[in-house]
Amino acid sequence: MLRFYAGKGGAGKTTCAAAAALALARGGKRTLLVSTDPAHSLGDALGARLSASPRPLGGKLYAAQMDADRALSRWLGVRERSFRALAARGTYLDDEDIDSLFRLSLPGVDELVGLTELRRLSRGFDEVVVDTAPTGHTLRLLAMPATLARLAQVLDDLQAKHRALARSLRGSVRRDAEDALIDELQEEARSLHALLRSANAQFHWVMLPEELALQETLDGVSALRQSGLRVERLIANRLTPKADGPCSLCLARRAEEARVLQQARAIGLPIYGVPEQAREPRGFRDLSAVALALRAPQRSQRIRNSTPRRSTAPVADGDWLEDVAGAEVRLVFFGGKGGVGKTTAAATAAISIARRGDRVLLLSTDPAHSIGDVLDTAVGDQEREIEPRLWAREPDAARAFERRREKYRTAVEELFAALRGGSSFDAPYDRAVMEDLIELAPPGLDELFALLAVIEALQRYPVVVVDTAPTGHALRLLELVGKAREWVQVLLQIQLKYRRVTGLGELARDLTGTARELRELQQLLVDPRRSRFVAVTRAAALPREETARLLSALKRLRIATPALLVNAITPPGCSRCRRAAAAEEEELRRLRRIRRGCAMLGAPWIAPAPRGGEALARFGRTWTRME
Amino acid sequence: MLIVDRMLLGGIKFVLGKIAAAVDAELNDDSRLREELLAAQMRLELGEITEEEFARFEAELLPRLREIRSRQGGDAAPRLESGEYKVVGVEATADFEQE
């Protein structure tokens, strides 16, 4: 049985998946726990060093962290000869061109080989529990069988020409290794599609009992159901336990949670509640407590009639704004582990910048957008003015891809016509290749169009604030700038090489423009005055460990990180809150050691979470510099 | 053999078409110059030429572009009209791969 733990970043997928796997293994099943999130935190949660192949953790439990890059190169390695043969037969590219294309690295490979690799790892286990990447990318992962089928179709078109030529010259066609590869891909696509929809696969949706998580849960569960996947249950994680004294924060949190869960019942799934643990669950003993809570669904909670009192926080001045967005700043990224409050922080900063007097665009590059939820207004692919000088946009990658596809359809058609050299013989085959190739949504699509959206925004706004996808994919996005430039350069080289035959059309002009924009963006990213990355985190172990990895990755990319925002700091109230605050104090000390010279900003826990312009502006006034 | 015939015929027609287009372009088409400029921009993005080299090239090309445009505006451009032409000095090699 394959059990996927899906949900918004930071909801506790890793913890719940680990607890479930532990319970299965203790029940006598040979169980594999595997993470498909490129920013792995499974090892942190288990307190164990993990690798790409399953490691025994004692008893019948094994765990692994998928290494998609390695899986892809292994997968490609044994098939490279056939891919090259297909490319050589079906296109006009010569060995040199094909070489340079094969040397490029592919963005978004986690999704491409993820399911294949997952099945390979699963062999020999009774139960496989999957700790997935945050919603947007998991939905991409699940759509991969369809992409594989389309890839097989393109290759089949390439091969069709070869078959027709062989038939006309030799009178017969022999099946070769390339045909076998196409069959293999088609079969892989078919069987993965079937596996995900069989009785042997199910989804468990993990959510925090918060307003922001609710919308993503409704959307995510219905997306899964629409593609025919079976969602088994909802897990509401980190429910606030009853306060042991009068505590306005705990009361406000419990009232808000009850309201959200009541709405979540509309989904029609059993809800399992996991109370917030006294400390962040790490290692087997802590996970056992979570496993216990996962054994039975929650009974419907009655909502108390008491109106939730807004918990208040001390008001501070806004001197943090200089750290986040100095006078010359053009581009500010907000990033971090899922669920730490990136979107709320990005929106708060954008509002403060707008109210300071600069025109600013708040742009989401997380395929699971939530800017609109935080601003409490509809935001979409079209830029919208939220308040004076503040604009917002949630780009729609699929639609942008559609537009570009239409634009290039004609250009590519002309290119092929020219490359065909006037012979009408190849026409039907080339046309089929070209049409299927244009249909093939490349992996890493979200990152690619997010990047183009950033470039476009910088041309029209003095300041752009980017709300990024959780760590793993945010880093992908930043690394993509260089990778995309390499891709564009190879395409430019090929076009230059064949220009005597094909001429240089609109495609060449666009690609040259894109190459220049990518070069300028690359320069902008490493200029600490104009571009910066604010790492958002919480005072807890898993976010802290991910923050340490994020900061060192950013240093490697030479991107400035002037500020570290620690969100949701518990103000001392009841004894439970005081215990939480003490644990956070310890984590803050550790954060100070890894912060690499960033200014440390703190924001208090506010219940219910701030939504809408005024609440966010108020929230911004509670941020303080902590030294 | 039908296929080979079609490939040959198509190929020859293609070559002749290209030649006619080249002659036309040489005389009064600014798109060729523009394409040269674009090619130079591409080389600049590929790092094959420096900013200075590109600037020199651009400075050389722009007056010629303006000249062609003014000639087109004055409607005095020589045109390639339909009729018979003799094209000399063309060498072509056909290489059809057989399996």
Account of the protein in words:
The complex is a heterodimer of chains A (627) and B (99). Chain A folds into 3 domains: 292 residues, P-loop containing nucleotide triphosphate hydrolases (Rossmann fold, 3-Layer(aba) Sandwich); 266 residues, P-loop containing nucleotide triphosphate hydrolases (Rossmann fold, 3-Layer(aba) Sandwich), CATH 3.40.50; 30 residues, no CATH class. In chain A, 53% of the residues lie in helices and 15% in strands. Chain B has one domain. The model of chain B has no long low-confidence stretch (mean pLDDT 71). The interface between A and B is medium-sized, with 26 and 19 residues.
Which sheet architecture does the biggest sheet of chain A show?
9 strands, mixed
Largest Cβ-defined interface:
A-B, 26 and 19 residues
Q: Structural class of the helices, strands and pairings of chain A?
A: alpha/beta
Please list the strands of the largest sheet of chain A in the order they lie side by side: 11-12-10-13-9-14-15-16-17
Low-confidence stretches of chain B: none
Poorly predicted regions of chain A: 302-315
What structural keywords apply?
heterodimer; A: alpha/beta; Rossmann fold; 3 domains; globular; B: 99 residues; mainly alpha; flat
How would you concisely characterize the structure shown here?
The complex is a heterodimer of chains A (627) and B (99). With 627 residues, chain A is α/β, with parallel strands linked by helices. Helix content of chain A is 53%, strand content 15%.
